[in-house]
Specification:
The protein is α+β, with helices and mostly antiparallel strands. Bound molecules: guanosine-5'-triphosphate (GTP) and magnesium ion (MG).
């Protein structure tokens, strides 16, 4: 029975002060969904007997089978305390790392969160991650320490031991909060410092840089978790009980006559009670006094468990009567002690009361949204709040007010789109039966039952009664069967049947201001939308989107069609949703891909993008089993993309359809969804595609057997040089230190390029600042286009300087002199971890100076050609020579850029302008001859001396015959970069996961065995205090990770399970092109060196996948085979 009618919920939605939007966050399997079950059962949506077993919020089949949550879902609950009634919008989130993007979508639309920690496992990696997410979104957390029963039943702790263990967990989690807080305060302080440096007049005389002051001045006591503050409860969700110390403080203040306030402060902590004096004293360890928490709380719980487990009926009865509880006869007699415990404890210490009371008291309502959070939500990229247009800044007040009047702007944030079966939508559901219909049905059922009874007794079936035949609507007058009838009444109208197979998308959203009304027109703002740009184009002065709006980039207009109350597995229709509520919105699928901001005013900025912890890294190519089903697959992939916040779908240049997912479990879920829901076809899936990066290193000083290279005689030097020469075609000059000089096919320009490995720190800085580099690039291009809309804000400028400073700090030494100033571009895609530095004297341009000023025609011509050089560099960094994977950590230095011939030609073109007709004619003649030349060039490379064709006439014709000059420059630059790489020692870089494994000591050995088999490296091993659990931190190549989790689980019989998160790229030390060259190497590896070369194996696998040429000998030892056959 559902206690709360829809009307009640609608009424509660209007009282914003009593709304709590909360999500449940934790490490995987710490009991979030079980806790949610308990809270839901308090509303009568599920029976309390099923709470914890049903896992109601895990509505998908695979969630139930695997026992883990994969999607976050919301439910609205009612909670009454005293006179106050609250509406709690509860969101259950997944704990598995693969689905951490679902956590981000949940956290964004909440004001508070419940952090659940398993009392045995304590703080785990995902606990840290979710706590950080909550911090980043500025939402307030409360703590639930769950699974206390495990301390009693599994670890067999005494109450005293349990107390110390719980204290320990609290310390750990508070230490984490402390680190987050400290880093934030220091960051803010540093910001203030820079501001005062920029503005020296504002704060004078502060000479000493004192980091501590910021921390000392800031009160942080409210941030920490402590039972006396009321933000911690202890629970056992599976047994249905939980308590905060307030509950016991109230009881004991009456029982022992000590003030409740005093008890509240002392029930947790090292205090004991002197019963005679009725005084509370500090615990003196020597006297063996027990803390109050142990004596008054834990011991009672322990003795109850003890009594039930020992089946001590007398004691149980005593406890039950002393607590004044009424236990049903069925539960009291039940043989399973767990059911008895549940029955007693859930009455004694109802978990939902404890948790919901804490939520309502300690977590903020939507009205309490802080100015800091609002500003953060409104400022995308490197913008600051002050740099927003005044109209936009004014919206901050609307956020803070969270008002529901008609004049308040409507602001809604859609954090994800989720798919539901169109059948499940309220409008497509069969309408509920009226009272009369129900009565009729009941009557019919009774008659059928009577008939059955009669038949069983051997009597002839009764004829339908007059009454019944009148009721039956069956056209043939046949006797309708009960189940048929059932089907008929629950099947939606035939018109909708077609839609039944369809998925309908619902936006998971929250109203931040104003009332969302059905039928209301609203702007949909994409993440790149800029209110400043809009305000320039369209004057303000309207509150609803007009129909004749000129098209504005990243903005669309739509009507709010269907609004829903999210009730876990169900949706309820709503007409309007007041501010501060979580809701579902139907009909947005054509406007919103994954997330968006909806607003009634165009001055609203898009919300900052969700911050995802996991990077999608596991790729597979998919194709339909039957080629004709390709269109379904493409459509299905599009739907999947929309339905998952983190999956990426790509169509590669090779035509492959690729899915990129966060991990194996995520991949499996996506494939299942694709097969069963979105595409509904059979698909074949490739082996996971493992990404690599290509880079170069410094030449090694020692060989493969650790002998110094310089001292040895190179046995295979001749062989080696031959190989090197074959890689570089003739016509390209390579000097001894790797400078490549190459001329464009038309011989008009010559480029000299060198490749150098960047120091590791620099690559890291580039990776970390890719957003900043992107905004620098956007600024430059908008300035280039002559737009001046985006003024560089002071803060952005400072960030750029800081970034430059960091680069300078690491690029020191003669080799790198002035390199930072010469940086011309980053690549690939203009923001990657590779650098193009321009050392040529003819044309100076760098990323720091912005675009070259609007100068003469000459300069702009250079700029255009410069763009070609940059494009060539971008192409070269996008796919390297080893296996066409992107480059990383390489600096290309353009040493010289000789355009003199091109300029000469340009000058002569000017001279010849008057005789252009004549020239055209001649070009026609020359084309034929130069075509021949081109063929020759293809045959013998660039060997043909340029002088042969150096006549004025020839040159101009050559320009045309090789295509546009800019295109030639791009190709030549790309070639130059590739060759420059090939003359250096090349290396592959592998993607690495960090892997956290929790394991008990007896399976530790097996975990290590699996790790080392898969080339994992253990970084750290830590024992959890008070348990025999170990936490192992390791790194593992992504390439070796497939099936890793399963293997670990199997080998340890499920006692250990790893969590893998992408962390960084690492150079694979072996050289993929390695062949033995030194004497020692020959001795050690033999001439063929057939021992396995990991890097070559990876490289060849990638080349094979991409259909590139792979140098492999199919018959390795032919002579041996012959000998064998002879001997037969
Ligand atoms: N002993 C004990 N087991 C519990 C308790 N709460 C939950 N469990 C068990 O822990 C397991 C995981 O519970 P879930 O509620 O699915 O955990 P979750 O945090 O939702 O897991 P994910 O959603 O996958 O992250 C289940 O087998 C539960 O029965 C508890 O209080 N005590
Ligand atoms: Mg769950």
């Amino acid at each position: 029975m559902v206690l709360n009618s829809l009307d009640k919920m609608i009424q509660l939605q209007k009282n914003t002060a009593n709304i709590r939007n909360i999500c449940v966050l934790a490490h995987v399997d710490h009991g979030k969904t079980t806790l949610a079950d308990c809270l839901i059962s308090s509303n009568g949506i599920i029976s309390s007997r099923l709470a914890g077993k049903l896992r109601y919020m895990d509505s998908r089949e695979d969630e139930q089978i695997r026992g883990i949550t994969m999607k976050s879902s919301a439910i609205s609950l009612h909670y009454a305390k005293g006179d106050e009634e609250y509406l709690i919008n509860l969101i259950d989130s997944p704990g598995h790392v693969d689905f951490s993007s679902e956590v981000s979508t949940a956290v964004r639309i909440c004001d508070g969160c419940i952090i659940v920690v398993d009392a045995v496992e304590g703080v785990c990696p995902q606990t840290q991650a979710v706590l950080r997410q909550a911090w980043l979104e500025n939402i307030r957390p409360v703590l639930v320490i769950n699974k206390i029963d495990r301390l009693i039943l599994e670890l067999k702790f005494t109450p005293q031991e349990a107390y110390s263990h719980l204290k320990n967990i609290l310390e750990q989690i508070n230490a984490l909060t402390g680190t987050l807080f400290t880093s934030k305060v220091l960051e803010e302080r540093a910001e203030r410092e820079t501001e005062s440096q920029v503005n020296p007049n504002s704060e004078q005389g502060e000479q000493v840089y004192d980091w501590s002051t910021g921390l000392e001045d800031t009160d942080d006591s409210h941030l920490y978790f402590s039972p006396e503050q009321g933000n911690v409860v202890f629970t056992s969700a599976i047994d249905g009980w939980g308590f905060g110390i307030e509950h016991f403080a109230k009881i004991y203040s009456q029982k022992i006559g000590i003030k409740k306030e005093v008890l509240l402060k002392t029930l947790w902590g090292d205090y004991y009670i002197n019963m005679k004096a009725k005084k509370i004293m500090k615990v003196d360890q020597a006297k063996g006094k027990k803390p109050l928490f142990v004596q008054l709380i834990l011991e009672n719980i322990w003795s109850l468990y003890d009594a039930v487990l020992k089946k001590d009926k007398e004691k149980i009865d005593k406890i039950v009567t002393s607590l004044g509880l009424k236990i049903g006869a069925r539960e009291a007699r039940h043989s399973d002690p767990k059911i008895q415990i549940n029955a007693i404890c859930s009455q004694w210490l109802p978990i939902s009361q404890a948790v919901l009371a804490m939520v309502c008291h300690k977590l903020p309502s939507p009205l309490d949204i802080t100015a800091e959070r609002v500003e953060k939500l409104m400022c995308t990229g490197s913008q600051t709040f002050d740099s927003l247009p005044p109209e936009t800044q004014a919206l901050k007040a609307a956020f803070m007010k969270c008002g529901s009047e008609d004049t308040d702007p409507v602001i809604i944030f859609v954090s994800k789109m989720f798919a539901v079966d169109a059948k499940a939508l309220p409008q497509n559901k069969p309408r509920p039966l009226s009272q009369e219909e129900i009565a009729q049905r009941r009557e019919r059922a009774r008659q059928r039952h009577a008939e059955k009874l009669a038949a069983a007794q051997g009597q002839a079936p009764l004829h339908p009664t007059q009454d019944e035949s009148a009721l039956e609507t069956s056209p043939k007058g046949e006797e309708p069967r009960g189940d048929e009838q059932q089907v008929e009444s629950t099947t939606p109208k035939p018109v909708l049947r077609e839609e039944n197979n369809q998925e309908s998308f619902i936006a998971f959203a929250r109203v931040f201001s104003g009332v969302a009304r059905r039928g209301r027109k609203i702007f949909v703002l994409g993440p790149k939308y800029s209110p400043a740009e809009f305000l320039q184009r369209v004057p303000l002065g309207f509150s609803a989107p007009p129909d004749d709006l000129p098209p504005v980039p990243h903005m669309a207009c739509c009507t709010l069609e269907n609004l829903y109350l999210l009730m876990g597995r169900e949706l309820e229709d709503l007409e309007e949703v007041p501010p501060g509520n979580v809701l579902g919105i139907g009909g947005l699928q054509d406007f919103v891909l994954k997330s968006a901001t909806l607003c009634s005013l165009p001055s609203c900025p898009p919300f900052i993008p969700l911050n995802f912890e996991a990077t999608p890294i596991v790729r597979v190519a998919v194709e339909p089993k039957h080629p004709s089903e390709m269109p379904q697959l493409v459509k299905g992939m599009k739907l999947l993309n929309q339905a998952d916040p983190c999956v990426q779908i790509l169509i590669q240049e090779t035509g492959e359809h690729v899915l990129v997912t966060a991990g194996e479990v995520h991949l499996q879920r996506c494939l299942d969804d694709l097969k069963e829901r979105f595409a509904k076809i059979h698909i074949s899936v490739s082996e996971p595609i493992i990404p690599f990066r290509e880079t170069i290193t410094k030449p090694p000083k020692v060989d493969m057997v650790n002998e110094e290279i310089g001292k040895q005689q190179k046995v295979a030097v001749i062989h080696q040089t031959k190989e090197d020469q074959s890689k570089i075609p003739e016509g390209i000059q390579v000097d001894s230190d790797g400078l490549i000089t190459i001329t464009t096919p038309n011989k008009l320009a010559t480029l000299s390029v060198r490749a150098m490995p960047l120091p590791e720190e620099v690559t890291q800085i580039l990776e970390e600042n890719s957003d900043l580099i992107r905004s620098m690039e956007q600024l430059t291009s908008s300035l280039n286009e002559g737009k001046n809309t985006q003024m560089i804000h002071q803060k952005t400028q400072e960030k750029i300087w800081e970034f430059k400073g960091k680069l300078e700090q690491h690029l020191t030494g003669r080799k790198w002199r002035n390199t930072v100033d010469q940086i011309w571009s980053f690549g690939p895609r203009k923001c990657g971890p590779n650098i193009l530095a321009n050392r040529s004297e003819d044309f100076q341009n760098s990323v720091w100076t912005g675009p070259a000023g609007k100068a003469s025609k000459e300069a702009s011509r250079y700029r255009d050609l410069g763009n070609s050089i940059v494009s060539g560099f971008q192409l070269a960094t996008l796919s390297g020579p080893m296996c066409e994977e992107p480059l990383m950590g390489v600096c290309f230095v353009l040493e010289k850029w000789d355009l003199s011939k091109f300029e000469e030609q340009g000058a002569s073109d000017n001279q010849n302008e008057e005789q252009s007709d004549l020239v055209k004619e001649r070009q026609g003649e020359d084309k034929t001859c130069s075509d021949g030349d081109e063929n020759q060039k293809l045959q013998d490379g660039f060997s043909e001396p340029f002088e042969k064709r150096s006549s004025q006439k020839g040159e101009s014709s050559l320009t045309d015959c090789y295509g546009p000059f800019s295109g030639q420059l791009i190709a030549t630059m790309k070639e130059a970069c590739r060759y420059a790489l090939q003359v250096k020692p090349q290396r592959l870089m592998a993607a690495m996961y960090t892997c956290d494994i929790m394991a008990t000591s007896d399976v530790l050995g097996r975990v290590y065995a699996v790790l080392s088999k898969r080339e994992g490296r253990v970084l750290q091993e830590e024992m959890k205090e008070g348990t025999d659990m170990f936490i192992i931190k390791a790194v593992l190549p992504v390439a070796e990770s497939f099936g890793f989790a399963d293997e670990i689980r199997k080998r340890t019989s499920g006692l250990a399970s790893p969590q893998l998160v992408f962390s960084h790229w690492e150079i694979i030390p072996s050289d993929p092109f390695w062949v033995p060259t030194t004497e020692e190497e020959y001795l050690h590896f033999g001439e063929k060196a057939d021992s396995e070369n990991q890097a070559r194996k990876y490289m060849n696998a990638v080349r094979k996948r991409k259909g590139l040429y792979v140098e492999e000998k199919i018959v390795e030892h032919a002579e041996k085979q012959r000998t064998l056959s002879k001997n037969k």
